[in-house]
Amino acid sequence: MEELKIIEEKLNKFETLFINQKTVLNLEEVAAYTGLSKSCLYKKTSTGGIPCYKPNGKHIYFNKNEIDKWLLSNRKATSEEIETAATNYCLTGKRGGAK
User: Fold this and answer.
1) Residue 14 lies in a domain
2) Residue 47 and which of 3, 21, 53, 60 are 20 to 30 A apart at CA?
3) What is the tally of structural domains in the chain?
4) What per-residue confidence (pLDDT) applies to 98?
5) HEC states along 16-57?
6) What is the domain range of residue 83?
7) What CATH code is carried by the domain that includes residue 46?
8) In the prediction, which pLDDT does 46 show?
9) CB 71 within 8 A of CB 34
10) 61 - beta bridge partners?
């Protein structure tokens, strides 16, 4: 039983290495790469929420670089960045509120 678990882990690592070498991914590969379910990906492709390609109108393909960019979109600022921005805003003399 333990041997099967070790083999499965090694296969998963191999699959990850293989996916990282490709530039065009299919739906199953994107699901494994992102950790999102296939149903979630289908929904995102149908609503335009994720960049994808349908060259023959049936199968869905993804550009790995675009998926990486999509995964890293909407970056959340750190507390330090927010504090620095607030300090800079206060130091410039700009004040909010009614005029």
Assistant:
1) yes
2) 21
3) 1
4) 44
5) HHHHHHCCEEEHHHHHHHHCCCHHHHHHHHHHCCCCCECCCC
6) 2-91
7) 1.10.1660
8) 94
9) yes
10) 26, 53
* Token digits of residue 92: 């410039």
Helix (H, G, I), strand (E, B) or coil at 76: coil
Q: What element of type H or E holds 62? A: strand 61-63
Q: Is residue 71 part of a domain?
A: yes
What's 91's DSSP letter? H
Q: How many CB atoms lie within 10 A of CB 97?
A: 4
Query: From CA 29, how far away is CA 39, in angstroms rounded?
Result: 13
- Inside any domain, residue 45: yes
24 is written with which tokens? 């065009």
Q: Is residue 43 part of a domain?
A: yes
Radius of gyration of the chain (CA): 21
pLDDT along the chain (99 residues), means of 10: 86 77 92 94 96 92 96 93 89 58
- Residue 24 has φ and ψ, to the nearest 5°, of -115, 125
Cβ–Cβ under 8 Å, residues 50 and 70: yes
